[in-house]
Write a structure and sequence with these properties.
With 93 residues, this protein is mainly α. The protein is 40% helix and 9% strand. The protein is built from four helices and two strands. It has a two-stranded parallel ribbon. The N and C termini lie far apart (38 Å).
Length: 93
């Protein structure tokens, strides 16, 4: 969740692709089948990203997936298109 760690990884890993899986916090909470956000809000989980611990949003990710706007299939297509464009994957005809 921290920019500093992402920058470190980018510096030391070849072919690093930053994919930002984006959704408003309320959407994340609504999707939470394990009830972790509820526990974090009750103080049962300390340092929970987005609740009691900050999340530093990527400013210029390679791919930004707005999962509250697009289907899973569309998000997968966005990732695959990026990987193909960068030459990381080849797709058959």
């Amino acid at each position: 969740p921290y920019k500093e760690m992402r920058d470190l990884l980018k510096k030391h890993l070849d072919n690093f692709v930053e994919i930002y899986v984006s959704a408003p916090l309320e959407v994340c909470e609504a999707r939470d089948v394990k009830g972790l956000y509820k526990k974090a809000r009750a103080g049962e989980i300390k340092e929970f990203t987005g609740v009691s611990d900050p999340y530093e949003e990527p400013q210029d990710p390679d791919v930004r997936l707005e999962t509250h706007k697009y289907s899973v299939e569309n998000c997968i297509d966005q990732i695959m298109d990026h990987l193909k464009k960068k030459g990381y994957m080849e797709f058959g005809e």
